[in-house]
Write a structure and sequence with these properties.
This protein is α/β, with parallel strands linked by helices and 343 residues long. It folds into two domains: 1-39, no CATH class; 45-342, Aldolase class I (TIM Barrel, Alpha-Beta Barrel). 40% of the residues lie in helices and 16% in strands. It has 13 helices and twelve strands. It has helices spanning 12-17, 19-22, 32-38, 75-87, 117-128, 159-176, 190-200, 221-226, 246-258, 272-282, 292-303, 309-323, 333-342; strands at residues 48-55, 62-63, 71-73, 92-98, 133-138, 151-153, 156-158, 180-183, 207-214, 262-266, 286-289, 327-329. A hairpin with a 7-residue loop joins strand 2 and strand 3 (71-73). The protein is globular and about 85 Å long. The chain binds ligand PBG. Ligand PBG is lined by residues 137, 139, 141, 149, 184, 220, 223-224, 235, 291-292.
């Protein structure tokens, strides 16, 4: 295959002058093996966190219409999903509840119930698949009648009244066996308050992955459908403005100072610049959340035959690693892990 070009050796000075001209970037792209040899980053099963939805009742998993391929599982079904994830080498599963409307109220009380769906699913997974990590979201929105992440007083989300409840929510989740709590509410000071509450209760090993830079985004649409959100309006008084980047640095610095073990950026793909900045600035394990909207876009285009879904999936996940992410929360996780297994 190697082609030899016969040429008279030029004078040494000319060789030096021409050095850059002789650099051919394509040499290293010739073969599959050269490409593999020089590849800087790649995604592996170890980098994946799989978010799943849990619902009341038994029976088969039920599909979420706006997220083709994504299911809502019974508590028992969550344990089966966790078994599948562990067998594929996925280290962590993240739980989100679809709470019955009758259990939602203005204060998100059900979120503090030690027997709520998330706590029951956590116990079921820990009993059946003890080797997998469990991440639980800390925010009141799956439990509030208005769909906001915090307690509303009049038209305002009250920061400090919300934090008190978030601490109790984190406690019931940790006591059920959750390994990582993920405050996704964007209240100020919640990481310190949760760390303090966990330590006081003797739960010193429970980790905190804070949603440090979470933007008010249109990409959460299908998720709100999956958890049956009743939200009207938006979350712009607590989630970040998408025009801002320096603010993400301040948010992350604050969460790290308050005791976050890991930080997260959300959404993912439209915010790779933020992932890159935070991971380089702090050197703290930084995760990206490939949101429901990002998932739905890739799936919809693939189903229309407009893109190759498998390739777009792998490319989108590799991009997070290239940007500096330690790992990715993705609804594609089991499919990615299966694809990596096949090679
Ligand atoms: C709740 C929460 C949301 C997501 C994760 N946790 C929605 C929101 O903030 O409205 C979004 C996940 C996704 O879109 O995949 N605080």
């Amino acid at each position: 295959m190697q082609q030899r070009v016969e040429a008279a050796a030029p004078a040494v000075t000319e060789r030096i002058d021409n050095a850059t001209g002789r650099l051919r970037m394509r040499r290293l792209r010739q073969n599959d093996w050269t490409r593999r040899l020089v590849r800087e980053t790649c995604i592996g099963a170890d980098d994946l966190i799989w978010p799943i939805f849990v619902r009341e009742g038994g029976g088969e998993p039920q599909p979420v219409s706006s997220m083709p391929g994504v299911m809502r599982y019974s508590v028992e079904g969550c344990a089966d999903a966790a078994r599948r994830a562990a067998d594929l080498g996925i280290p962590v599963i993240a739980l989100f509840p679809y709470t019955d409307a009758t259990k939602r109220d203005a204060f998100g009380t059900e979120g503090l119930n030690p027997d709520n769906l998330v706590c029951r699913a956590t116990r079921a997974i820990k009993a059946a698949v003890p080797e997998i990590g469990i991440l639980c979201d800390v925010a009141l929105d799956p439990y509030t009648s208005h769909g906001h992440d915090g307690v509303m007083i009049g038209e305002r989300i009250d920061n400090d009244a919300t934090i008190e409840r978030l601490c109790q929510q984190a406690l019931v989740q940790a006591e059920a066996g959750c390994d990582i709590v993920g405050p996704s509410d964007m209240m100020d000071g919640r990481v310190a308050a949760i760390r303090y509450a966990l330590d006081e209760a003797g739960l010193r090993d429970t980790m905190i992955m804070s949603y440090a830079a979470k933007y008010a985004s249109a990409f959460y649409g299908p998720f709100r459908d999956a958890v049956g959100s009743t939200l009207k309006g938006d979350k712009r008084t607590y989630q970040m403005d998408y025009g801002n980047s320096d603010e993400a640095i301040r948010e992350a610095a604050q969460d790290i100072a308050e005791g976050a073990d890991m930080i997260m950026v959300k959404p993912g793909m439209p915010y790779l610049d933020i992932v890159s900045r935070l991971s380089r600035e702090f050197g703290v394990p930084t995760f990206a959340y490939q949101t429901s909207g990002e998932y739905a876009m890739i799936m919809a285009a693939a189903q229309n035959g407009w893109i190759d879904g498998d390739r777009a999936m792998m490319e989108s996940l590799a991009a997070f690693k290239r940007a500096g992410a330690a790992g990715v929360l993705s609804y594609f996780s089991p499919r990615v892990a299966e694809s990596l297994r096949r090679g």
